[in-house]
Amino acid sequence: MVIGDYTVDQVIEKAQTLIEAMPYIKKFQGKTVVVKYGGSAMLDENLKYNVIKDVAMLKLVGMKPVIVHGGGKEISKWVEKVGKEAEFINGLRVTDAETMEIAEMVLGKVNKSLVSLMQKIGLKAVGISGKDGGMFTVKKKFPGGKDIGYVGEITNVDTSILTSLIEDDFIPVIAPIGVDENYEDYNINADDAACAVATALEAEKLVFLTDIEGVFIDPTDKSTLISEMDIHEAKDIIEKGVVGGGMLPKLNNCIAAMENGVSRVHILDGRLQHCLLLEFFTQKGIGTAILKEPLF
Ligand SMILES: Nc1ncnc2c1ncn2[C@@H]1O[C@H](COP(=O)(O)OP(=O)(O)O)[C@@H](O)[C@H]1O
Ligand SMILES: CC(=O)N[C@@H](CCC(=O)OP(=O)(O)O)C(=O)O
Q1: Atom from ligand 2 closest to the CA of residue 103
Q2: 72 annotated to bind ligand
Q3: What is the distance in A from the centroid of ligand 1 to the CA of 183?
Q4: So where does substrate get bound (predicted)?
């Protein structure tokens, strides 16, 4: 027997998936969830559209999603177009005045492209940067004591603009730019921004969407994926030098978020279609989960 385009078994399987989602929907209803959408996982419009559809689903079942986005790859592309070389120290972009200008322009474009996609599927979204509503106050960051230009560390998040938007049913979409007390612009690593926002909003969950399956002991050996680790293990692998590149600020931020009250932190492969739905609504553990304490 067939029902529409499906066999009875397929229909039952679909219904079971919905039933499986029920406890998770109940658990996260009314909760704030922060999704950090990394530039590395914005490979094409189709993928972006699917991520936005997942966010729509989170919103429609009663969660309060907030998006903090990156755009590092796109910034590097434009930095190279003006004849410069993109340079990073500890996963943070060395940002001179010209690079700052490029970063703000590119992040503004990424921001509005995400807002457009949301509007296309009927979601209410507002794109802002940390400058809007005085949301982020920053000070210059000196990673390892080094001066890397206009790179900011968030010292305060004024959540009033976010809470107003959320109360009015909008999804805030945040670009990681902020100003210091002298109103100088700063480029902020999007992982740092997501962690600060999740902490300030006391989010239930912080999810990083990136371009790798999760955290690996050895990224060249897929069998070394860490599916769960506690804060101590996370600190340990950082100390051992196992984690590099853009994963370093991500993992440091996972630890900071957990230490500052965020209940759950996950690192997921944003290239995997509907990874957010799989993570939120099914029992399948995907990516790397960072836990406060060991489970056993
Ligand atoms: N131990 C590790 N496990 C996983 N990824 C790692 C590790 N060490 C370095 N990386 C790198 O970190 C990258 C993710 O960070 P990044 O490129 O900044 O992504 P995003 O744009 O999502 O912030 C991965 O693509 C990978 O190359
Ligand atoms: C200071 C710093 O590193 N800023 C980042 C901001 C964008 C970002 O973090 O984007 P992803 O999340 O895609 O990496 C940068 O200029 O690349």
Answers
A1: 16
A2: yes
A3: 32
A4: 71-72, 93, 187
Q: What confidence tens digit (pLDDT) does each residue in 196-244 have?
A: 999 999 999 999 999 999 999 998 999 999 999 999 999 999 999 999 8
Angle at 289 between CA 118 and CA 272, to 5 degrees: 45
Q: Which residues pair with 13 in a beta bridge?
A: none
How far away, in angstroms, is 190 Cα from ligand 1 center? 13
User: What is the atom index within ligand 1 of the atom nearest the CA of 237?
Assistant: 1
Q: Is the pTM of this model over 0.90?
A: yes
CA–CA separation, 127 vs 121, rounded Å?
16
- Domains identified in the chain and CATH numbers: 30-291 (3.40.1160.10)
Ramachandran angles phi, psi of 38, nearest 5°: -75, 150
Distance CA 171, CA 236 (A): 36
This complex has an ipTM of: 0.96
Count of beta carbons in the 10 Å neighbourhood of residue 12: 12
